[in-house]
Amino acid sequence: MSPIDKKRQADFQVIAQWVEPGERVLDLGCGRGVLLEYLKQKKSIYGVGVDIDFDKILSCVKRSVPAYQGDVRTILATFPDGAFDRVIFSRTVEQLDDADTILAEGLRVGKQVTVGFINKGFWVNRLCTLFKGRRVINEVYPKPWYETQPTNSFSVNEFEQYCNARKLVIENRAFLAGDWRSECSVFPNLLAGYAIYDLSSFD
Amino acid sequence: MNDSEQAPIIPEEGEVGFVEYQDFVSKEPFKFVSGGKLPELTLRYETYGHLNATKDNAILICHALSGDHHCAGVHGIEERKQGWWNFMVGPGKPIDTTRYFVICSNVLGGCQGSTGPGSINPQTGKAYKLDFPKLTVQDMVKAQSLLIDDFGIDRLHAVIGGSMGGMQTLQWAIDFPERLGRYIALASGARHTAQAIAFNDTGRQAIISDPAWKQGDYDPECGPNQGLAVARMMAHITYLSDVGMESKFGRKRRSGDESKEHFDVEFEVESYLRYQGASFVSRFDANTYLYLTKALDRFDLHSPESLDVTLSAVTSPGLVIGFTSDWLYPPHGNREVVEALLRLGKDATYAELAMDFGHDSFLVRAPKLYELIHRFLTR
Fold this sequence. Notes:
The structure holds 2 protein chains of 2 kinds. Helix content of chain A is 36%, strand content 23%. By secondary structure, chain A is of the alpha/beta class. Chain A has one domain: Rossmann fold (3-Layer(aba) Sandwich). In chain A, strands 3-2-1-4-5-7-6 form a 7-stranded mixed β-sheet, sandwiched between helices. The N and C termini of chain A lie far apart (42 Å). By secondary structure, chain B is α/β, with parallel strands linked by helices. Chain B has 2 domains: 22-191 and 300-378, 3-Layer(aba) Sandwich (Rossmann fold); 196-292, Rna Polymerase Sigma Factor, Chain: A. Chain B is 32% helix and 15% strand. Chain B is built from 10 helices and 14 strands. In chain B, strand 13, helix 9 and strand 14 (348-353) form a beta-alpha-beta unit. The longest helix of chain B is centred in the middle third of the chain and has 15 residues, at 194-208. Chain A binds chain B through residues 8, 24, 31-32, 46, 48, 54-64, 66-70, 74-75, 78-80, 83, 140-142, and chain B through 1-5, 317, 319, 335, 338-339, 342-343, 345-354, 368, 371-372, 375-376, 379.
């Protein structure tokens, strides 16, 4: 595995710890289906991936991961309440045009929702803006703003505020340092490069 | 993020070359869902590749409404036109005849060698015509299963089909779940839209209102050719797309402006459709057209209970492929099938190809389609 792939798969181990064996998992924005393939191997899950891009679906087919090419909102609407044990948004929430509604839909369809995101409050991101006056460009996000999708990034604090505002239960949280590998235990809003949350709604 | 993965190397392609059809004859009475019966039945078919010793490498291809059993290769040296899915079937192609034994049969009710309304009823010595039993997609699939039995094949590696063939494919997955390893349905859906039924019925009316139809009791040599040609012309429009027709024909003219009004061919698109109508008449039977379109209109996986209940029988992994420009069997109709399968916890995939060729996109060679089918068959 290349270092970039390793970094891209930062949240795999954390998510795999939270997933129970045999769970039904819906991965929204599943990309090439690597996470689902990993969870299938580690936890014998039934997983379904969703992605808008044909080439990603092609990769899922290669991995024998069931996948649905289409819009996240469309597919969520077709599932009854609690159809999945877990709905995963791994670096997907940033791309949504109506994150609030879609997360609520995720919590309707999934008993739990897992959200992994890059922390906008990470000190490197702050310094980059402060000193260079631009966003970070690194090996994971190598392209300048004009070659990428609109991204609505947010910080650990902003995400916690959202969970509070919507009265969501934070079942689990994990923070990774700037290398996206080692654990980050203090001041996550400043020191965590990557954050993973496990949420459920009040019942 | 750069998520491109290297494309698999597809070995050099070959051709299946010369092929001959065979006839499978079942002397047992065949019972239709409607209760109707045939004293015996014939299915005309072609095969490509070799059935292995364990008989587990067979792929059944189901053809569309106006298709037939000839999906690859050529019948003779003077035949210029290859089988209808020649680009997909052959050595080194996605449906690789060096790996798989490929079977394609003319559908029950057809007019290309299988028993249909134009066939002779051995009990009366006359053609069935409208005495041919009411036909459903389930009957087509049941007849195919007899052919598969005859080969001694318990389980097919895959069943694949587009359009009407896609509906047969879904029916296979529902009626014989233990007999297929996987299935691929292209440009199909759980049922016809009101619009699809409307187009079919207009086509049927063109045939029925042709005086030569004679309540179905026409001489095959002088059938309702005018009606059938018009039905085909109209149906053909539904297989294409606005964009596709515009780029192929635009407003290109055959003849210039003349002072006197006339209704001969003026635009290129008229010439094309008239040719399609005329050539269809020479190879297709009007009664078969009526029977098959009716079978398609009645096909409905939402009944008798619901789509989810019908599809709960499915056990094998499936791939459903929709095409963005297909307005006859639109993407949402294809998606709906996979949405139901996923609700049921089945292994199903929906992929959508952005192609401009309308419903007929599945008949057009495209690298992405090629790769998708190749990967699903070999995964």
